[in-house]
Structures are given as structure tokens and as C-alpha cells.
Amino acid sequence: MASAAGSLAIDLDAKRGVRLREGAVVASLFTCALISILTSAGIVIVLFWEAAGFFKSVSLWEFLFGTRWTPLLEPRSYGVLPLVCGTLLVVAGACVIAIPTGLACAIYMSQYASDRTRRIVKPVLEVLAGIPTVVYGYFALTYVTPLLQQVYPDTLVYNAASAGIVVGIMILPMIASFCDDALRAVPESLRLGALALGATRFEVTVQVLIPAALSGIIASFVLAISRCIGETMAVAVAAGGTPNLTLNPAESIQTMTGYIVQVSMGDTPHGTLGYYTIFAVGALLFLMTLGTNLIADRVLHRFRETYE
Q1: Please, which residues bridge with residue 77 across strands?
Q2: Model-level pTM?
Q3: In whole angstroms, what is the distance from residue 88 CA to residue 247 CA?
């Protein structure tokens, strides 16, 4: 009886210790999640609180639809359209480079490459993601721009085209890796069934695998676009600092992030209207990224319903 009671007490102590350890793990995970939420909420609150100081002096209509952006020079103008246009111009150029190339790389690695080739190609692609963004900027300035000037002599030293090209190279590994994972996650039975019906490997890829993996592919595109919108140093170095409302990629532009870098250098006094412009631009950048993600979530939900 004594030994049985002792064993029972040991089991209870062991179970109590297990519960305590599990409770500690749950509490630590909850704390980490709470810190993430509070940090995000704090960033949003500070961003929009400071942006409110800007809109006390400048109307929202002038900010969103004005075509001239000179908040630090006389005469002062606060139309953000040149910055938005420059940002979208770089994003469009990067997507033209990265989306078809990245998807093609993913199709090759998942369907055509041998295991040995895939083990070599995928790490080499992912090395591109580890290169500092400022290096991409100087690569655009010293190598890409001279090549563009040979093709189109009117290309300026700082231009949107070279910035879009290097940002496209920068996000290429993200698209290729995520699309590859999405294609390889498609059940093997779908691919084998299509091959058994006489379809070629290309037909299987285009008509079966890509539609089945479309949600993951679109997710990779959205993440890449969000990365483009928020890219800073590469475009600040390569695209220039001229807030120019143009669709000509050979001209110098300024992106929203590039302007934030310019003002954040410390030359603008704290509390001035010029200082508050960085928060107004940052708030608009946040809303653009949030809107892109919300639209993508709806699209992903629709395609999940179609192919699940």
C-alpha cells in the first residue's frame, strides 16, 4: 500500500510538472503574440497620430490629387501624386521582370529539373535575396543604367527603368521559391491522372498544376508587390530624388519611400509641416499595402473555393 501511494504521489507530481511546463510555454507564446500585436498597433497609432498634424494644415483633397510635390521648397506644394506615380512605375517595371521570370523558374524547378539541378538552382536563386538592397541600387547606377543608355540614349543617370529592373531581380527569388512550393504542393494524383489521359508535361503544367496552385501563386505575387512598394534603398539610389509626375521610365523620379529617406536624414526640423509630411506619406503607403493585401485575400478565397 505504501509503495502504491508513493507511486501515485510521484505520478501526480510528474503530471503537475508537465502542466506547469505546458502553462509556461503557452504563456510565453501568448506574450510573444501580444507583443507583436501591441507593436503593430503602436506603429499604426503613431503613424496616423502624427499624420493628423499634417492634415490640420493641408487638405486631404490637395494631398491626394495635387500634381506638384515640393514640401521643402518655395512655393510649397503638397500633392502626393508624383510620389505615388513614381512608386507605381517602379512596381510595374519590377513586376514585368520578376513575375513571368519567377513563375517560369518555378515551373522548371518543380516539373522539369532533376533533383540534383534543383538542389543547385534554388539555393543560387535564394542567394539573391540575401544581397543588401543598397548594393542593388549601386548595381543599377553603375551597370544597368549605362546599358539602358546604350539602347536609349535619352535615359537619365537616375531613372525609373533601372530601379524597376533591379527591384525585379531582388524579388525574383521570392516569387520563384513560393511558386515552386505551391506547384509541388499540388497532389501528385492530379498530375499522374492528366499524364495517363495523354496530356503532355507542358499541358499538365499549364492546364492542371497552375490552376490548382493558383492561390499560392497569387499569394507570391502579392507578397512580391508589397515588397516592391516598400522597397527603399535600391530605389532611393537608382531612381533619384525628383518628384516627377511622368510615365516615362527613362526619367528621374522619386518614390514614397525615397522621400521618407530624404526627409529622415535629419535636415528637417522636428514639428514642422515638412517633418509631418513623412507621416502622411507613410500612412498612405500603409493604406496602399493594406488595400493590396485585402484585395489579394478576397481573390485567394475565391480561388480556394474553386479548386478545393
Answers
A1: 70
A2: 0.82
A3: 10
Q: Are 137 and 165 in contact (CB under 8 A)?
A: no
78 has which bridge partners? 69
Which three cell numbers, joined as nine digits, stand for 155?
Answer: 535615359
User: Could you tell me which of 96, 98, 84, 83 has the C-alpha nearest to residue 224?
Assistant: 98
Q: Helix, strand, coil shares of the chain as percentages rounded to 5?
A: 80, 0, 20
Q: Which three cell numbers stand for residue 238?
A: 537608382
pLDDT of residue 305: 47
3-class state of residue 1 by DSSP: coil
User: 240 — phi, psi (to 5°)?
Assistant: 100, -170
pLDDT digits (tens, 9 = 90+) for 154-213: 888 889 999 999 999 988 888 988 888 888 888 888 887 887 888 788 888 888 888 888
* Residue-wise pLDDT tens digits, 266-302: 667 777 787 888 899 989 998 888 888 787 777 777 6
Q: How far apart (Å, rounded) are the C-alpha atoms in residues 88 and 254?
A: 11
User: What single-letter amino acid sits at 61?
Assistant: W
Residue 127's identity, in one-letter code, is: V
Q: Measure the CA–CA gap between 259 and 277, rounded to whole angstroms.
A: 9
| pLDDT(16) > 60 | yes
Q: What single letter denotes the amino acid at residue 301? A: H
H-helix or E-strand spanning residue 69? strand 69-70
- Amino acid identity, residue 110? S
Nearest to 111 by CA among 123, 120, 103, 100: 103
